[in-house]
Every structure is written in C-alpha cells, then in structure tokens.
Amino acid sequence: MPQALEAKTKVSSCSVDMSPASHRIFAYDLYQDQCEIIPGTMSLPALEKKGDIILGGLFSLHDMVVEPSLSFTSTPPSTQCTRFNFRTFRWMQTMIFAIEEINRKGNLLPNITLGYKIYDSCSTPHQALKAVLELRGTENNSAGNTHQQGVCHESIPAVIGDGGSTQSLVVAHFLGVFHVPQVSYFSSCACLSDKNKFPAFLRTMPSDFFQVDALLQLVKHFGWTWVGVIAGDDDYGRGGANIFVNEVTKLGACVALHEIIPKNRAQSTISSIVSNIQSSGVWVILVFAVEQDAAALFDEVLRMELAGIQWLASEAWSTAAILSTPRKYHHILQGSMGFAIRRADIPGLRDFLLRLNPLSSDASNDPFLAPFWEEVFQCSLGVEAEDQKYNTEGNPPCSGTEELGSIANIYSDVSQLRISYNVYNAVYALAHAIKAMRSCVKGKGPFLQQACPDMDSIKPWQLLHYIKQVKYFNTFGDETKFDGNGDPRAMYDLVNWQLKPNGKMDFVTVGKFDETTAASHHKLQIQEENILWAGNQTKVPLSVCSNVCPPGTRKAIRPNFPICCHDCVVCAAGEISNQTDAIECIQCLPEFWSSAEKTACIPKQMEFLSFSDTMGIILMVISLTGIFSTCFVAFIFYCHRSTPIVRANNSELSFLLLLSLTLCFLCSLIFISQPSKLSCLLRHTAFGITFVLCISCILGKTIVVLIAFKATLPGSHVIKWFGPLQQRIIITCCTLVQVIICTVWLVVAPPMPQKLMPRDSPIVILLCDKGSHLAYALVLGYIGLLAFLCLVLAFLARKLPDNFNEARIITFSMIIFCAVWIAFIPAYISSPGKYSTVTEVFAILASSYGLLGCIFAPKCYIILLRPEKNTRKHLMSKTSTSKRF
C-alpha cells in the first residue's frame, strides 16, 4: 500500500479510537517512516523563502485532486491537483505580504528575518497530511526534488493553515502530538475547540459555535419557526448544521428539512434535495456549506426554477465571489443574508498582489505561479517538460507580459478582505509570540527553573506556550487574542446580497454580531430598514408551518406533526391570552371574565334584583300598587268607621291588619336593591316580623269571631276574657316570639352580603347570605304555625251565619297564604341567582295580595257599591234566621 494512503488510514483511526499516549507512539512511527522515503520519490511542490525562523503554510490552492490508478507493483506517481482557486491564492499571497511587511519594518522583530515554506493541500485531507509531514520532517535536497534518505529536521516551529476544517482536523491531530502550534485562518468547526484532542490548535477564525449563535439570534429576531438546513458533507457542514439544528429546536422553531450535499455532487441527489424543498413549504433555508457545494446546489435550483427562497449563508460562502459574480445566480440569491467575519482594508496589499510576473527572477522558485497565470489569462506558458501537467491544451501561449491589473477577478478584488485579514492576523500573532519569547528576562522565564527559550533553536512547544498568551491591538484597532480553546473574539458582519442597477451584486452590511456583549439580546444589532429580501421585497418573509396565533387564542399541537405545526384554538370562556402564539390560555380571577375577544379579563357583571331591570320594575310597581291599595282600603274604613260592617269586623284589628299589610308590601322593596349590610339585616327580619304581626291580627280576628258566637249561648261568660286588652296581648305575644327569634338570629349569625362567583359564568351574583339557615327556617316555620292555627280556627267557625261569617273569608285567605308559601319552598331552592330573590318577593306580594283581597275586598264592595247592605238590620237578619233553625 502506498505510504500516503497508509498515513491517511493511520491518522483516521488514531483520531477516533487511540489514546493520547498511543497517538504519540503512532505519530513518531509515522514521522520516522516519512523520513525513510525511497530515493527518487517525488516530493510535493513548495513555495519557500529562507529566514532565521521559517513559518509553514498550508493553503488549498486547488479544489480537487485527480487520484492516480494504483497497483501493488507500480511506483506511485505524484498526485495531480485541479481547478485552481484564485481566492485561496490571494490568501497565500497575504501570508507572504505580512511576513515581508514584518521583515521590512523591523520594529516588531528586529534582527530577525522570517521565512516561509508553503504547500498546496489541494482541499483534501490526505494531501494536507502529506504537506504537513514534509513541513515537519524533511528538507529538500539542493540538487532536486528528492529526499535525503534518513535525514530529518525540525526547522518549522509553527504552521499557518489549513483552510478547510476537514483538512485542519487531520493536520491538528498530527501536529498536536508534537505540540507544534497550528494557527488556522478559515477552519471554523466547533470540534477543533476541544483542547484534549487538539492541544496545539489555534485560529483567527471564530468557531462555528458562535456563528450558529448568530444565526439563531437572526432566526429568533425575524420570528422564523419553519426553517430548512442544507449542509455540506464535511466536518464544517455537518458539524455546524448539527449544532444549529439542536439549538434552533430549543428556541421553539422546527427544522422542515435537513439535507446533505454529497461531495461527489451527484445531480440526482441534489435534485432530490430541491424537490424536498419544494414539497416542504419552507421559505427560509440555511446552507451551511463551502462555496463549491453551495454552487452545486444553486445550479440545480436554477435548473428546477425554484425561486422566492430566503437563503441564509454560512460564512464560508456569505461573500463568495464564485456565487456573486456569475449573473446566472443573481435572481435566486438576491436578498440572501449571512454572517461574514470582519473585513479590513490592508494598505499596500493590492499592489503586492499585482506584482507577480512569470518573467521575474523569483518566478522560477514559485511552483504555483505558472498554473495561476495560465488560469487567469487562459493561456499556456512555455515550461519544462516535467511541468507539462500545468498546460491547458488548446490555449494560446502566454507572453509573460500580461498585466494582472487589466483583469477584474477574485484575486485582485480587495474589497472583501475577510479571510485574508485572518491570514494577516495569524502571521502577526506568531510574530508577537516570537517577540514575547525574545523579550524573556533570564531567570524569570515561564519554563522549568524559570528558564527562557533558546532563540537560536526555537522549540515548537515553547512557541505554543507564548502564542497562547498573545494579546495585542493591531494597526486597525482590533484586538487579537485567544481564549482557553484557542478561539479568537467572535465578531461578524451581517451581509445582505443586494443587486445594484449596474447588474453587480453588492454585499451590504446590515448588522453586527458581537459575542462578547453581556446581554444576549444585544449581541445582534440589525438595521432592518436597509435589508432587501428575497424576490426584491421590502417585507420580512414569513416562514412558519402554521400561522401566528393571535391574542385570544392558544396553540394546539397537531398530532403526528412537528411541534411548530399547530392549530389556533379560541380560549374558553373565562380564559384569555394577551400575546401571540400563547402556549396556553390564562384563567381569569373569579371576579373577572374574559372579554369578547378573549384578550383581557374584565370585571364580571354584577347581578342582583335592582330597580333598573325589568323584573325589578314590575315587582316595584306591584308592591307600590299593594301599598296604595292598602292605604285606600284604610281610608275607606276610616271614612266609614261608624258603619255596622266596619264596627262588626273589630275596627281596631282591621286597622292594625291594614298597617301590617302595608309593612309587608313595603318590606318587599328592601329586596329590590343591591345587597348591603343593612339591607341584608332588614330583609328577612322585617319580613318575618311584619308577617307574624299580620297573621297575629288575623288570628285575633278569628278568635274574636269564634268567641263572639260562643258567647251568645245561655250562661256563657267567655266574652269577658277576650276583650280588646286580651286581643292586644295575644297579638303582642305572638309577635314578640318572632322578634326574639330574629334578635337571636341577628346576634348569633346575622345575614351578610355575599358574592357568588361561578367559574363558568360571566356574572357575579350578589345575594344576602342568611347566616343561619336554621334561624331562617324557624322564622318561616313560626309564620306557618300561626297561619295553620288560623286556618284550623277559621275552619271550626265555618258554619256561623253567612252575613257575619268572616271565618269563611279567613279560611279562604289562609288557604291561599299556605298554598303560596308551600309552593315557594321548591321554587326558591331551584331558582338561580337573582331569581331566588324574585321568588321570595313574589311570595311576599302574592300572600299579601291574597290577604288584602280575601279579607277586605268583600267589605269594600258592600261599603262602596252595596251601601244598602251596610246596615245593622241586614247584618243581623241572617243571624235571627239561623237561630230559628
């Protein structure tokens, strides 16, 4: 098996399963194996410049590798890299620019010259591993590109690179074993922050953890709850996308689809991804992938004519020229948004980039200049036979006098120096670490016995210690330092892709994200008025599985659907929700009820028998009519008090009965008002006492009628025991018993106002709590007892002479009275709310009208309409006739 493939296999296995100690043993063996390469084996091309301290560099100058066909007997040929990347070539030139700037100025590292040795990792892990093995362990033979068998050197104290996270993982595993500091400028995988696995890894590129945090803040800010995620099939894409998916669900959002772009970019697979987008109903999609994978996706989006999607870009392609420059992507990517790392304008860099020329004296030492030049100008340079692999068949020859400044391309475009700025900072971070090493005071060093590092032979692990402590402000005012995980301060620009009238896609900064801000809601600052959305719209696109539930409703999860798919259910009566997308409705307090919109709790309507409602007005009119009728009867009796029919009916008791009936009608009005402490005390006590007074008067009249006829029998002296004084005593004693009952009631458990607040009703029922149901039963029972006694006595006196038979009238009135109050009991118990009070008032009025009508109506009829019967002769005529029988 070829050694390169063996290396790839070993590193992959050790990165997963092997312990740190095994890592060291394996890495050392691999290192020794690489030193014993067979003579004549071709090494990788490198761009090299001598210096006192050599910094290694890894850049993916090509996007693909053409793997050779291998057999067990053939000698493995060199790997061929294809698809030259102008942007990465600019990053490499930025590293050279920074090193030469440091050497030229001399104030940072006086008397020290930095050199470099740069390899092309070809965007593949095993090519990156080959490169780092050569950086770490070998030097080229001065005679050519052959290794000196068995000769190994440790001349590279630090490595800048690689760009891709997948390549950096392999390199970091290897360099971490030897504690060689590695500073990446573009690897953002959050997995690289694990210092247990990658102790020597640092970067000037923020971790994807912070980028995901920024994306989460963006999704939360615009209220997107139905998002799609498409990732590249590498550590960068899968790692970042998985973090995003896990965290976005914690915000209550849902992932409509989660797809992977395969590395072979098969059209059938990508076509299936686009079809899933169309069927999902999602309008906001995050593409967490490198620019090449994103381009493959958007090619298929164009072919299937999918439009109107709001694309969210990861920083790998948020400012990618290969997507923004071709006009074919403009109508689908216009309005896209993404986070890009901070940019800077590096003075002198553009002139430095344009200095290159294949005819210069340094060109022969640059193995990457020829393929770059041929790719830029689409021509073929006359190169040696062994370098014919760089030629492009069919292209015209290059003269070497072409001007780079005459062609506008990604390489010469310095308007978006973001990753280049990271490369620039990585070089300066290492330079500051070397400066700190050089500034060590003897006897006060950080190592064993306070020793300082030997500057004549810098050890990588010593440089690693110092670079971890680096902290400085560069010429642009930005602070450069590394946290405990080797990560820099995370600051991003929120860029919006906006198509200008001239047809150029412009990256407009519409916000900032700074993870160092203490308050999480202040980390992301957005200028919404400057944003242009997908489809050239000015309104925020809506991407939800279900519409927002307005106030007054709550979310109800649909069975067998994601949590973001819900129905909006109106809050039940007595419940409200005063915010959008409420999880549950809030129960109003007992004295409150929900408004018609179910958005606020309003005081419940007070319900009581009042003078303003219809029922109260009717009862009040009936009560007043009764009062006026009673007063009218009293007036008639008073005007005809000397007539036989008035005198014969015991005028004193009649007037007292009329007074008690007037009080009965009056006490009914106490029930028609809002219950108060005073009204509750008076209601049932006044009713009980006045009715007992009324029944007592009727009882007295019944006894008088019965005794009056008994006294006419020969030898009877009973009439003298039932004179006016005795009658008053009977009435007083009967009434006094009720007064005592009511007094005890008011002292022990007085009636008080009460609010009945049923949960399922929009009203508060105002009632008088009786305090003691036993006392109320005694009051009614005592009234019933007197009424029953009157009924019995009147029944006994039913055969008295007709013209003077008041007992018959009393009997009929008591029957009506008892019937009313017997019917009152079940009606009162079953009547809800204020209608129980209505029932009680109706019983009072009905029984009062029954007494008034039955007892006094016949007499008033004779007095007013049949005055000829209001004579002593007429009243006594039937009596005489009766005696004869």
TrEMBL record:
Gene3D superfamilies: 3.40.50.2300, GPCR, family 3, nine cysteines domain. The lineage of its organism: Eukaryota, Metazoa, Chordata, Craniata, Vertebrata. One of its GO terms (cellular component) is plasma membrane. Keywords: Cell membrane, G-protein coupled receptor, Glycoprotein, Membrane, Receptor, Signal, Transducer, Transmembrane, Transmembrane helix. Coiled coil: none annotated. Its main location: membrane. One of its GO terms (molecular function) is G protein-coupled receptor activity. CDD domains: 7tmC_V2R_pheromone (cd15283), PBP1_CaSR (cd06364). Residues 615-879 form the G-protein coupled receptors family 3 profile domain. It is found in: Cell membrane. The keyword Transmembrane applies. This is Extracellular calcium-sensing receptor-like.
